[in-house]
Amino acid sequence: MPVHATVYSAEAIDAQVVDAKTNQPLEGVIIVAHWEVGRVVPTFVPIMPFGNDPRGPFQLQIMETVTDANGRFHFPAWWPLPVPPLAALGDRDPHLIFFRKATSWSISNGHPSTFDYSASSTRSSEVNGTTIKLKKFEGDLKAYADQVGKLSVPLDFARNWRNDTCDWKRIPRMLGTVIKIKRSFREKLIYSALPNLGSIQQVECGSAEEWLKDYLK
What we know:
Number of strands: 12
Shape: globular
Order of helices and strands: EEEEEEEEEEEEHHH
CATH class of the largest domain: Mainly Beta
Radius of gyration: 19 Å
Low-confidence stretches: none
Distance between the termini: 48 Å
Helix content: 10-25%
Number of helices: 3
Strand content: 25-35%
Number of domains: 2
């Protein structure tokens, strides 16, 4: 494995979210940022000495915030955090997930097609200083349930069935919101792939219902 940084930090992120049609600021948009570290394991095969770690990637940092009345949000800079052996953030910047009820969700994945181990250990985001546009969803409730249900895929990082990280506790506002939306669909007998309380790893993390109670009201 190439030589890479053993600690990483990130610059602050400041941006604005607006309505795609009116360009008016959107208040109450939930934004999740997570910096995902790739890791490998030795294969003991000369032509391919390293392979993907079956445990998958892990999250070096996870943050959650919400836009203010001007549609603005801020993630503070964070200082050097270590990564374990055979793991690297490389040139990857944060995945950003944007969501507000009744809008189409959006992501900025921050992952280039290459993985540059020699990239700076101080990461930034291309979203910083920009304006993000979210569309109001136009369609019936079943179509919305299908569209918003796809949000479960980018949220899998936080409920990835592992006992040792409890990453879902870092995004209570997002999880509480999508669980409430799923419940509203269920009341109308509409299927949605959004997560529910039962799909969150709780064996060593405590009760999700208790942790999220303020966001499930």
